[in-house]
Amino acid sequence: MKRRRLRIYRKRRKKKKVILILACLLLLGIVAAERIGYIDLEQLLSDKQKDIPYQKVSVTAEDNAEKYYYQQLPAEQRQVYQEILEGVRNHTEEIYVHDADADETNQIFQKLMKDQPDIFWCDGTATATTHKGTESYTVLKPKYFYTIEESQTMQAEITQAAEKWLADLDSNADDYHKILYVYEKIVDEVDYDENAPDNQNIYSVFVNQKSVCAGYSKATQYLLERLGVFCTYVTGKTTDGGSHAWNLVKCNDDYYYVDTTWGDPVFQQEEGEDTSQNADQNTDQNSDQDAEASGNKTNISYDYMCCDDTQLFQTHILEKDTQMPECSKMDCNYYVINGMYYTQYDAEQALGAMNQTIWSKKSATTFKFSDNAVYQQAHDDIFQKELAKAAQNLADYYGLSQVKYQYIDDPRLHKIVIFWQYS
After folding, report:
1. How far apart are alpha carbons 128 and 115 in whole angstroms?
2. 316 CB contacts (<8 Å, ≥6 apart)?
3. Positive or negative CA dihedral for 272, 294, 198, 317?
4. Which of 19, 195, 253, 370 is the most buried (most CB within 10 A)?
5. Do 96 and 55 form a contact (C-beta atoms < 8 A)?
6. Where would I find the beta strands (DSSP E) of 44-165?
7. 3-state SS class at 240
8. pLDDT tier at 283, thresholds 50, 70, 90
9. What is the CA radius of gyration of the chain?
10. Tens digits of residue pLDDT in 227-245
11. In which element (H, E) is residue 231 found?
């Protein structure tokens, strides 16, 4: 009987031991499972961050405070703008941005290119791909025309040329004279050439000195921004249907349009806008054609040197959905400031203007009229009466036996320009 109780006792101890071991194993299993789960979650979070290498940004909002298109964007799109800008400046091949819409990303890129005239190593051409998921994003792949090293060399050339061009500007110049200086400088230094290389960026202007409207307008923006004058890039079409670019500026706290390209007489000649004619008084029509040549750089047009909406939209059409501030003043227009703008016609005043030019031995008399009605009234009287009187005064004053002059008659721009010959 004793042995039986002993055996029974031992069996009970073994059972308790097995139960205890199983309990310990279960407890360790739960702890292990919880620990493994924690490690897996941490690893997933880490992988998620590595999967989307968003473009890091060093530029600040203040850096773009005067950028027109940047300021039109909502806050979330400004972040995308800054990411793209940082990537493009670094020639990043794939720019990861916080945007779940490829079309929107591309539109932001186009606006950025209008704001940043110094970016010449790409023109806004890119592919944008949106990746959908728990966190959607877009990858922008811009097309770069030059490597970082090439771009740095070209930028040095641009900077050197820009500094040289601005060297003669009066340090005390106000906004108007800064705009005028840049307008005339670009017209003087650059030739309009549709076949010019790099003609969509500023390198064509500052280094090759041959460009088209995109180059002219971006160079105007680039120089005026260097001078602290607000200027942005505007795109659209001409009323003839061709694509075109020009600028919006701020002068004395008011907005005006500037079109440097259309100030260049070489452009006017290439586009078929040359409306000049030669005339002789008291001589036959076979005499020497030595009047000031059309297309000569001295024959700069100032119709778009700070003009208002009324003047601009006779010949320009804004790109669809483009929002621009109202330009309602002509106070800073070149012709207004120089006393060549007429809101009504007076024959005596017109003759006086021509006589004053002749006595001062200046090259031209310009009449810019506010609208078509005033222009038509002036046109008939000037060409039928007053011009002949002024020509006779020129002959008498300088002792000439014959008088030659050339004139531009432009109904579209309501303008008459008479170029005088003094020998």
Report:
1. 20
2. 236, 237, 238, 239, 244, 246, 257, 259
3. negative
4. 370
5. yes
6. 95-97, 126-131, 137-142
7. coil
8. very low
9. 36
10. 999 999 999 999 999 999 9
11. strand 231-238
